[in-house]
Amino acid sequence: MKDIVENRQRLSLASKLRIGLLVLKENGPLWCACLGGYYAASAVADRFFKSMDGIRRRTGIPGMNSKALNKAIWEAWDWGGGGDEWTPSDEWKASVMKCVLERHIPTGTRVLEIGPGGGRWTGALIARSASFTAVDISESCVDLCRKKFSHEPKASFIVGSGSDLQGIADSSVDALWSFDVFVHINLAEVQAYADEFHRVMTPGAIGVIHHGSVGGALGGWRSNVTHESFLKTLQDRGFEIVESVLEWQDEGTTHQAGLYKDVITVFKRRS
After folding, report:
1. pLDDT (average), residues 180-203
2. CA proximity to 6, closest of 37, 53, 48, 42
3. Is 205 helix (H, G, I), strand (E, B) or coil?
4. Where are the alpha helices (DSSP H) in 77-134?
5. Assigned fold of 67-269
6. Which residue among 32, 97, 138, 270 is the one 20 to 30 A from 90 at the CA level?
7. CA 123 vs CA 108, 135, 146, 150: distances in Å
């Protein structure tokens, strides 16, 4: 049982005391002691997080999202789960494939993936591509993907800097994909990447990027990027926004783009 700290403010002190007595009666002192410890610890943790977030916003420090930290974290990450540790359910992943990847990434195109990680989406992207390249800041991810997809002659994997696409030729990308990556990249690096998108994408090329929307206010190691700043970054460089969604419907089920009010933005390089 986890809750949101702010929600506790919706109960008056008298109501909390009355409910507390009922909880004690129904669950006993040991369980209630653990509950009290959880409430106290989570309230303290929430206060510290808000202080961290405030300091980052006031001073402009990178938090957990500098290029150096991103490289260190994802180099050290255990990729045994292939990236599916962030997949809420098989149904969600299948819907992302059907409603996002297959809908927007054309078949028979030159595809670029930024941040393949453990190859969570890479196999599906390779299958749709005429040629495929992936760039990742983590050497361990690149090594892993090279081994995992060694049977795919049209796929190549290169180590990147975390803010540019060196090694990718001008006007050589027809479709660009990145998921669970730009949520961890601060705005300055996102802007540098956007300059590179304009260089490497062909006129009419499509881009699909999963990113944060609230500047890290909800945690999850999210960067300082907001929905508005991400869209402005693309629009300032002449990209057309095709759509930008926090959720979608698939056969009666609502699926969220991410765990922390993340967004999936689809954009196009104008001709």
Report:
1. 98
2. 42
3. strand
4. 90-96, 102-104, 122-128
5. Rossmann fold (3.40.50)
6. 138
7. 14, 15, 12, 11
